[in-house]
Amino acid sequence: MVARMGKRHRAGIGLAALASLAGCSFAPAYHPPVTMTPPAFKEAGPWRPALLASAATRDDWWTVFGDPTLTALEQKVASDNPTLSGALARYDTARGYLGQAKAGLLPQVGADASLTRNRQSDNRPLRGSNQPDIYSADTIEGSFGYELDLWGRVRNSVAAGKAEVQASGDDLAAIRLSLQAELASDYMALRGYDRQAVLLQQTVDAYAKADHLIARRFQAGIVSGIETGRSGAQLDEARAQLADVAASRALTEHAIASLVGTPASSFTLAPSATAFAIPAIPVGVPATLVERRPDIAAAERRMASANAGIGIAKAAFFPAIRLGGSGGFQNTGLPGLLSASNTIWSIGPSTVLSLFDGGRRRAELAVARARWASAGADYRATVLAAFQQVEDNLARSRHLGDEAAAEDDAVRQAASTERLSLNRYSKGAVSYLELFTAQTTALRTRRTLIDLQTRQLQASIGLMRALGGGWHS
Q: InterPro entries attached here (predicted)?
């Protein structure tokens, strides 16, 4: 009795020891990296407050521009863009790998049945006189196996898989945001070309009338051939600029078609000379908004995955212990196969430990640690790039705003000069050269202003992208 109790006591101690080991993990304790967030953005400038009612959410940040056509195009990006579809497939792949890793947490159960007719060789070794040469072997058997995750290999595999799924989901969000911003930027460029086309068409019409008038004056001997040459050259130059704008618009329209998953040959956007208002950036955009960027979240999750990978590599230095068993029936024929006398079973643990592998496990551990260092470096680089992108677009928005304000004054002054020169030329007070110069300057300043306003809109889009989708948390 004492001996039996001693065995039970030792068995209990062994089970307790295994239970305590079941919670063991060789992965280093993981702590999310601390982002070195500056107190404020250097290029923020004296922005005016934005009304909450006009602020877009992260899911539909482009609605701040109030354009239904842009909204419809953004929805097609989400549903039809092939790059986004590929990212979604990679996310589903990561989820599949996670399911494989989770399977290791549960017992594996199987069943096997075989009904065979066999013949042994007449010259088989150790042939017995009472052994038949031809016999049947029928077996029905079930089995189970379960790895005792004493060193945390399976649990760390699951943890790494979860982190990879989360990182893949963040990659999907980052690609979606990038495509949305690219579409919005291209759309603003397209509408900028539409505005320039309207301006240039009006200019061509005005120049054509002036050229006709000068041609009549030349025929009447009032002006010289120099003025007709200048007038014709000015008209042709305006027509050339109009054709160049049309070509640029066509290329931009083709780019938008690819973004929304439509062949360029069957995609058309009707011209619209829409002048969009520049979105108001709030005073003191918080630098912490950068932390919500999906690419930063993905980089952090890959650090967590790499951290779990170290635990997986360390667990390989210890024996893999598996508890398994099987049971069923076996007979030399189907009759009586399921009787108690034909019962077979086997149960017990098994262990596998590699004693010499030529340094393979140490190399795998070194690889895991290098992946962790690489993931950490990638995270820091992603954060630095994020702050640079925010500062770049803040600087662009700020300085382009100053430039556009100055150019707007230049447009007004050039327009006034053009009107005065036209009146003076009509009265014969000045030569055509003065009018030519005033008209050329007026057209250049108007086109420059449209270009600056388009670039301001694109800078706002870049800023919203850099902040993870708008600047409203």
A: MdtP/NodT-like, OMP_efflux
Joined together, the tokens standing for residue 387 give 């702050």
Confidence bin at 47 (pLDDT 50/70/90) = very low
Taking alpha carbons only, the member of 170, 179, 174, 176 closest to residue 303 is 170
Range of 18-27, 212-221, 294-303 with top mean pLDDT: 294-303
Set out the domains of the chain in order of their start, with CATH numbers.
22-105+151-318+360-466 (1.20.1600.10), 109-122+130-148+319-352 (2.20.200.10)
DSSP string covering 39-90? SS-TT--SPPPPPGGGPPPSSSGGGGG--HHHHHHHHHHHHH-HHHHHHHHH
- Rounded to the nearest 10 degrees, the angle between the axes of helix 432-466 and helix 225-259 is 10
Separation between Cα atoms, residue 286 and residue 295, nearest integer Å? 18
- In this structure, are residues 364 and 346 in contact, taking their beta carbons and an 8 Å threshold? no
Strands 108-119 and 134-148, sheet pairing: antiparallel
- Residue burial 163-172, b: 16+ Cβ < 10 Å; e: rest: bbbbbbbbbb
